[in-house]
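Q: Could you write out the predicted structure for this multi-component system? I'm mainly interested in how the pieces pack against one another.
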Amino acid sequence: MLRLDCLQAVYSELENCLVVTIMGATAAELHSLGHRPNFFYLQHAMGLASSTGLGLALCLPDREIVVFDGDGSLLMNLGCLSTMARYRPRNLVHVVFDNESLLSVGGFPTATSTGTDLEGIARAAGIPRVLTVRTVEDFRTSVKDALEGAQLTTVVAKVEATGPAGYVTDLALVENRFQFRRYIQSLKRQ
Amino acid sequence: MPVSLASSKVIFDALKGCDVRLLSALPETWLVHLIRMADDDPELILVRLAKEEEGIGISAGAHFAGIKSAMLMQNHGFLASINGIVSFAHLYKIPLLMLISYRGSFGERDPWQTQGGNVTEALLHAMGIPYSFLDDTETVEKRIRQAQTLAESSLQPVALLLTRDLMWEE
């Protein structure tokens, strides 16, 4: 399963969500499908995309928040699973693309390649709904269900360790950040 | 426990007076009253963290949502947050109001706190983070308000060091 195909499969579902991605391939691939002002790409600070999603979810309980996390990033901030589980916002969908690799920095294998089970960790941390998917169709269904459901969900998507040739886009980091905040503020005025 | 309840109340009221609606915190001795007050206040979202760096992401999310936030941490929690501050708050121009208990400074009796006390201000300097001290209940309200004003106008982290003189009674 390719991450790009997964993103493509749920792209239309993201239109009314607030989306936070991790750095590197995940950000570049979502951007390549067509940037929207409701997408925020956290191009550094590994581990904090999930925390950013939690902050958004707690402050905006009427909006759906989607985080596209990765195995390397999540392993850097496993504590966030316990924090998310503690507050378990119903409007947060936490997707973890697990390619068993630190792909964006050279493809070194992460601990999920030697048996660390992110689904098990998320479940044991107390995330109320956790599942692992291995096909694009299952991925699409799981994200759609999580968006329509009312339970904090972590979806671990096992994907291949491949990505785009480059990660830099023409969207400056600060431009993305201001655009994202302005978009959210415009929603409040509607 | 000689943590000052009165000073904690002044700090808490000042934060609320600045329209802070979300507080992230990781417990440490000097912060116990503040965290309890936040927990008891239905107008505030209190996020209890596993590690302080999470608070950078949570405050960024709050900022995007248009909600003012503050972070309560020990200086060792600040040390544990440095990459988040540099690679998120600085890189993306995110305002942060950081209230940092200044352990390991003059009067510190816990040997394990002392090394962190030595490096706290040097690191704030090195990172270019504007900071001041909360050391007197008379000036707490004004200083918190001014720190928040600067964080919001400059879109960067600003630190207030909670001192022993303010937080500890004995």
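A: Regarding packing and overall arrangement: Chain B touches chain A through 32 residues (CB under 8 Å).
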